[in-house]
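From the pipeline queue, job 12 of 40. The input is one protein chain; the requested action is below.

Action: predict structure.
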Amino acid sequence: MTLVLDSGALRALERNDRAMWRRLKAAHLAASVPISHGGVIGQVWRGRGPRQSLLARALDGIDVRALDIALGRVAGELLGTARRQDVNDAALVLLAQDGDNILTSDPDDIEPLARAAGRDVEVIRA
């Protein structure tokens, strides 16, 4: 099981949410590296202030994947199928594998995408 982190999960880490930090630590102790993608990082990264230092520390332990042309295309197709609009959410869902946990502040956006993609994942509010 892998943790798949959206911008809400990263914002929780940035604001030093203890429950989110425990989830991150538990994943690392289980030798499971959480994942996200560069578009999600762009939603939260502002590059300054002490809160960003917490986010930077968290990102050191996250596998940040590229939102490249291949992922962009399948994300676009998923958006068409699910009748949704957020490419970052679609790409995030496509990174998840069956059995993974997607940590999000927007389960109402993620769940329809996961269903449309045929992903058997647990969507957890971050």
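Job complete. The first helix runs from residue 7 to 14.
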